[in-house]
Design goal:
The chain contains 9 helices and 12 strands. It has 246 residues and is an alpha+beta fold. The protein has a single domain, classed as Jelly Rolls (Sandwich). Strands 1, 2, 3, 4, 5, 6, 7, 8, 9, 10, 11 and 12 form a 12-stranded antiparallel beta sheet that branches. A hairpin with a 7-residue loop joins β2 and β3. The longest helix is centred in the first third of the chain and has 18 residues. The chain is globular and about 45 Å long. It binds 2-oxoglutaric acid and fe (ii) ion. It holds the Pfam family HalD. InterPro entries: BesD/HalB-like, Oxoglu/Fe-dep_dioxygenase_dom. Belongs to the iron/ascorbate-dependent oxidoreductase family. Keywords: Iron, Metal-binding, Oxidoreductase. This is Fe2OG dioxygenase domain-containing protein.
């Protein structure tokens, strides 16, 4: 079953690689640190991933309500399922994460090699926003790339869209989020169920606009660049975020 779904994904990705959509995504990514890449997976694979995500978040999420000094105190109000729980209960999500065809096409879009995240907790995480005011507030990620699969999302009048500021650097001792927002254009992107996007998350300040109604559920797959592997990385915010207990 899973083998068939992954095979469908690989075949689809090989076709997608021949389309003009890749060149457009590559340009968009270079300019904004963000590109919609919903064309990367067929509906059958999105549905199979969504089925696993929904059964996991319904059975095993942990509520978080945190603020981090490393990102200037911006809020994280959400429910998460950690990488270890996902790997225990889903064969599909880890297999999709490792798909060489998928990773290869991602590399074409971002313009450099895309590697599995060496820090396992950031490889894949499920996040659900479910109460009014829930948000994944302004932050950067430790590793270079995120591929986000949208499973559920309210319409934009209820929030849940993605905002980002490209070309910004994370100084953990002085995040200066407001300065980054004031000095640069802020892009906003509407996303919906079935969408996929890729972001350069270590140099793109980003957040999910707080929701006021509905439910927003995603699985975020994190990948590293070659330079990431040569950098000594601290993981304060992610260690606290993905801790087994909130
Ligand atoms: O939910 C999203 O679209 C973004 C999630 C995110 O930024 C993260 O998990 O680090
Ligand atoms: Fe992020």
């Amino acid at each position: 079953m899973n083998a068939r779904i992954v095979q469908e994904l690989n075949q689809h990705v090989r076709h997608a690689g021949l389309s003009g959509e890749v060149a457009a995504a590559r340009r968009e990514f270079a300019e904004r640190g963000f590109a919609m890449v919903s064309f990367l997976a067929p509906a059958s694979v999105k549905q199979a991933v969504a089925d696993d995500v929904l059964s996991l978040i319904e059975e095993s999420g942990v509520r978080r309500d945190l603020r981090f000094k490393e990102t200037g105190g911006t809020p994280r109000r959400m429910r998460n399922v950690t990488r270890s729980e996902i790997a225990e209960h889903s064969a599909l999500i880890p297999a999709v994460y490792r798909s060489e065809a998928l990773v290869g096409l991602l590399a074409e879009i971002v313009g450099e090699p895309v590697l599995a995240c060496p820090y396992e907790p950031e490889q894949y995480v499920i996040t659900r926003l479910e109460h009014s005011g829930d948000t994944h507030g302004w932050h950067w990620d430790d590793y270079s790339f995120a591929l986000v699969w949208l499973v559920q999302c309210p319409p934009p009048e209820h929030g849940g869209f993605v905002q980002c500021v490209a070309g910004t650097r994370w100084d953990k001792s002085d995040p200066a989020i407001h300065r980054a927002l004031l000095d640069n254009p802020i892009w906003s992107f509407e996303v919906g169920a079935g969408d996929l996007y890729v972001m350069r998350t270590n140099t793109t300040l980003h957040r999910v606009y707080p929701i006021t109604a509905g439910v927003r559920t995603i699985v975020n797959m994190g990948y590293a660049s070659k330079p990431d592997l040569e950098t000594v990385m601290s993981h304060e915010t992610m260690d606290a975020l993905w801790a087994e207990q909130a």
